[in-house]
Amino acid sequence: MPTVLVVDDDAVLREVLVGYLRRAGLEVVEADDGIDAVALARSASPDLVLLDLTLPGLDGLEVFRRLRSDRGDLPVMMLTARGEESDRVLGLELGADDYLAKPFSARELVLRVHSILRRTENLRSAPRAATGEALVDGDLVIDRRRHEVRRGDRPLALTVREFDLLEHFVSRPGTAFSRTELMRTVWGWEHGDESTVTVHVRRLREKVEDDPSAPRRLCTVWGVGYRWDRQEA
Questions:
Q1: Which of 37-51, 102-116, 159-173, 185-199 has the lowest mean pLDDT?
Q2: Which of 1, 37, 179, 215 gives 197 a disulfide partner, CB atoms 3.0 to 4.6 angstroms apart?
Q3: Does residue 146 or residue 143 have the better pLDDT?
Q4: Which helix (H) or strand (E) holds 81?
């Protein structure tokens, strides 16, 4: 049974979150500050962390950095207040897997958590499953089986969300997608902040483009969204 670490200094909200997750069949451990969160992540080895950004002492972004320093593949979903857009964007740019803005519904929380856990489990089982041939675009190689991306001789460090988005684009070159379509078809979100897509696109451009300010691969289609243009080897 997957284990979720809930980190929030609001005791009432934390109790509600723990209740939702346990009713959804998950094991839950909890922390009310950043120091305890880092220690508990090391001892309990959770499969996912729900991390509030506004914590006493050690703030959520610093906790995130330490969690990822200890375990680079640990999935983290950030919890933010609606007025904390800059922190939310920074969290996504640092590589958080997802976020939820307060207030949020129990159903949305559980769906997002299960989505991340399911994706993580699929990655673990990928070597035993047929996941298709590698995708090649110029000097870019996406190995679906190993869940790895290389550009020339250099491996690229991508989050789960970034990998899914890149795979979607490269496997459908020449097609323009809106941000709403990308949230729904790539990540399975029926609702969400479209700026999340913008942030992930910007992060991908920094990794796959020679000049991210003048992209040749991941192009903006004004009034529509984004399109992937193939590159010759």
A1: 185-199
A2: 179
A3: 143
A4: strand 76-81
**Helices within the chain (DSSP H only):** 11-23, 34-44, 60-70, 85-94, 106-125, 160-170, 179-187, 195-208
Residue given tokens 């490269």 in the structure block = 170
User: Between 224 and 194, whose confidence is greater?
Assistant: 224
Q: Enter the DSSP assignment of 133.
A: P
Residue span(s) of the chain under CATH 3.40.50.2300 come to: 3-125
Average pLDDT over the chain, rounded to whole?
86
Half-sphere exposure of 116 (CA within 13 A, CB side): 27
Return the CA Rg of the chain: 18
Instruction: At 173, list the tokens.
Output: 């070159």
Instruction: State the residue for tokens 């922390």.
Output: 31
- CATH class of the domain at 131-228: mainly alpha
CATH number among 3.80.10.10, 3.40.50.2300, 3.40.1350.10, 3.20.20.70, domain 3-125: 3.40.50.2300
H/E element, 44: helix 34-44
